[in-house]
Design a protein that fits this description.
5 strands, Rossmann fold, five-stranded parallel β-sheet, about 5% strand, about 625 residues, 23 helices, Amino acid/polyamine transporter I, alpha/beta
């Protein structure tokens, strides 16, 4: 069990651990000259990590199949709360990519002379483009690569933290009294409100430190059985490693009197000072520092890649609920959500150019959506425990923990918004709001279209015989009409009626083809796959029953695949060989308010398939269906 949880931490802990390369630095530098408050910041950071991690253990219990903030908010608070959480997560993952690449480049360039700093931005852009191309080819992190990077990162940083604190052991007994005295003196000079405001501002700006905590709960379905126990133990490893390293690094900043140096990260400044006391030869000191910073950069690149994995996964779940175009559900032949990867990559590039790779700016944008998602998830948990309090014996303790986590998350979110709204925070709010607005428009369009198509289906429902119509062998020499159909039965019936009117008494066979689309949700459970199979078969039986009710000979065939166009293409080749005297038909929805967005939301499968069939010399006719 411990080994399984350890491997889960290795595979899912990169995003969380990587945040210590920029979160603590931003929070500590926000203290300005009042670095004595750094001890409170270290303690508060470590404590907050454990509070949020423990609260997210409840997500593991309630959602053992995984799902993330979108699924939690949707199921516990409603679809619109889920929409906001999903939009925030999409922007969050875009910023994960951008800030991780920018911070990784900062770490690497800390090894180079300051004169090379003007190459830093172009290097960040080049690395980001490389990640996009790798992910389009199906890049996944294997445990063989992750283990040395994550373990090496944690071991080197734990060793530096331990030695760095031990080297200043003589000052530790006086650290707490001195901190209390300096805090009291500052309060007498400026007032307790100023002290509290300064600390809370630094604490909230260091909120990027808590990113990645939710990774285990998002991916419980990937863990070995027993999933819940493995997930909780992995979350404990995650919380301990993040709390120890984040809190420990802030203590090092304080003990070693770390100050900002142009061209260097605060970690590089501190570790350079610590390694310098070891009296290594110059080449060995540089090599040791280089190893530490290269491990930081590698971990940050792995964290950036989680954005390319997690962002498209969120969009795939949202596409299933009709919040985003359905193309984002599709997996390519390399088993990646290609459309999502391209969108995430382009968005990350735009933000990289806008921010010019400034980690200090990006961490503000990042923290807002991270804690918006935390807040919605923890609010959902609180509502759940209160709503079901009569059926759960331990509801009081669970509710108390959820409310505590909610208070922390909401507090950090509020302070970050207030403090940094005019300094870039408004960009995150604006972009997230625009994403929510676009999703609402897409959802409304799909809902209206579905309702109109359902009306068409109702017109023919009474004439269809109940019961399943199994596929049967037809005379292959007779003229055959082959229909590409999907779950929109009104569209399929409309296409059949068009063919009957255009070619009266010509076609003697009616064959229906449909593809069960294997998307990201299909891997959630066996029940999900069986449901998809049943739904596809039931739809085909519906069309065959309709033809039988009209006295027509009908049969059907189905296939499954990650790319519906490719799967249908292969299926039509098979059917055309079986029925050489055949013509394929599909429908094309025509809308009164036609525009680029509407065309992109519909008809992609039929048009792409027609191009493939025509290249092969096979006949395919697309018939119009006006949707008023």
């Amino acid at each position: 069990m411990v080994m399984l949880a350890f491997l889960a931490w290795i595979s899912l802990g990169a995003d969380g651990l990587s945040s210590i390369n920029y979160g603590p630095e931003v929070g500590f530098l926000a203290l300005g000259e009042h670095t004595q408050l750094g001890l409170y910041l270290a303690l508060a950071t470590a404590l907050t990590v454990f509070i949020i991690a423990l609260a997210y253990n409840q997500v593991i219990e309630l959602f053992p199949s995984g799902g993330g903030g979108y699924k939690v908010a949707t199921n516990l608070l409603g679809k619109h709360a889920g929409l906001v959480s999903g939009a925030a997560l999409i922007i969050d993952y875009v910023l994960t990519i951008t800030i991780s690449v920018a911070a990784g480049v900062d770490a690497l360039f800390s090894l180079f002379p300051y004169a090379m700093q003007h190459y830093k931005f172009i290097s960040a852009v080049a690395l980001l483009v490389m990640l996009i191309l790798l992910n389009l080819r199906g890049m996944k992190e294997s445990i063989a690569f992750l283990l040395p990077v994550v373990a090496g990162f944690f071991i080197t940083h734990a060793a530096l933290i331990g030695y760095g604190i031990f080297a200043h052991a003589e000052g530790l007994p006086a650290l707490i009294p001195d901190t209390l005295n300096e805090t009291t003196t500052l309060a007498q000079q400026t007032g307790w409100i100023f002290v509290a405001s300064l600390f809370l501002r630094a604490y909230s700006l260091g909120g990027g430190t808590y990113t990645g905590i939710e990774a285990v709960s998002n991916n419980v379905n990937m863990l070995a059985e027993p999933r819940v126990r493995t997930g909780k133990l992995a979350m404990l490893f995650m919380a301990f490693s993040l709390a120890f390293t984040a809190g420990g690094i802030i203590v090092l900043y304080l003990l070693w009197d770390a100050n900002h140096v142009d061209g260097l990260t605060l970690n590089a400044v501190t570790f350079q000072a610590i390694i310098g006391t070891l009296e290594f030869p110059e080449w060995l000191s540089f090599s040791t520092l280089a190893l530490v910073l290269v491990l930081e950069a590698c971990l940050l690149m792995i964290a950036a890649n989680t954005g390319f994995l997690g962002g498209p996964a969120v969009m795939a779940h949202m596409a299933a609920d009709s919040w985003v175009p359905r193309q984002f559900r599709q997996l390519s032949s390399r088993m990646v959500t290609q459309n999502g990867i391209i969108l995430m990559g382009v968005a990350a590039l735009l933000i990289m150019f806008w921010s010019h790779g400034s980690v200090a700016l990006l961490v503000v944008l990042y923290s807002i959506n991270v804690f918006l998602t935390f807040t919605l998830s923890l609010l959902g948990l609180s509502v759940h425990w209160w709503r079901d309090r009569r059926s759960i014996r331990t509801w009081k303790s669970k509710l108390a923990l959820s409310l505590l986590g909610l208070t922390v998350a909401l507090g950090i979110l509020t302070i970050t918004l207030v403090e940094k709204f005019s300094e870039g925070g408004w960009v995150t709010v604006l972009i997230t709001g625009l994403v929510v607005g676009l999703c609402l428009l897409v959802h409304r369009h799909y809902a209206e279209t579905k309702a109109k198509l359902r009306e068409v289906e109702k017109l023919f429902a009474k004439s269809i015989k109940p019961g399943a119509s199994l596929p049967k062998k037809l005379n292959p020499e007779l003229p055959t009409a082959v229909f590409m159909v999907d779950e929109n039965r009104g569209v399929g019936i409309h296409t059949i009626m068009w063919v009957l009117r255009l070619f009266p008494d010509h076609f003697k066979n009616f064959v229906f083809l449909s593809v069960g689309e294997v998307d990201t949700q299909s891997y959630d459970s066996d029940a999900t796959i069986r449901s998809m199979q049943f739904k596809t078969e039931n739809t085909l039986c519906y069309y065959a029953s309709f033809c039988e009710s009209q006295g027509l000979e009908a049969s059907w065939q189905m296939a499954y695949g990650t790319d519906p166009v490719q799967a249908l293409d292969e299926l039509t080749q098979k059917v055309s060989e079986e029925y050489p005297n055949s013509v394929c038909f599909a429908a094309n929805l025509i809308f009164a308010n036609d525009n680029f967005l509407v065309r992109w939301l519909h008809n992609q499968t039929a048009l792409n398939l027609q191009r493939r069939l025509h290249k092969r010399g096979q006949q395919m006719v697309i018939l119009p269906m006006k949707v008023n």
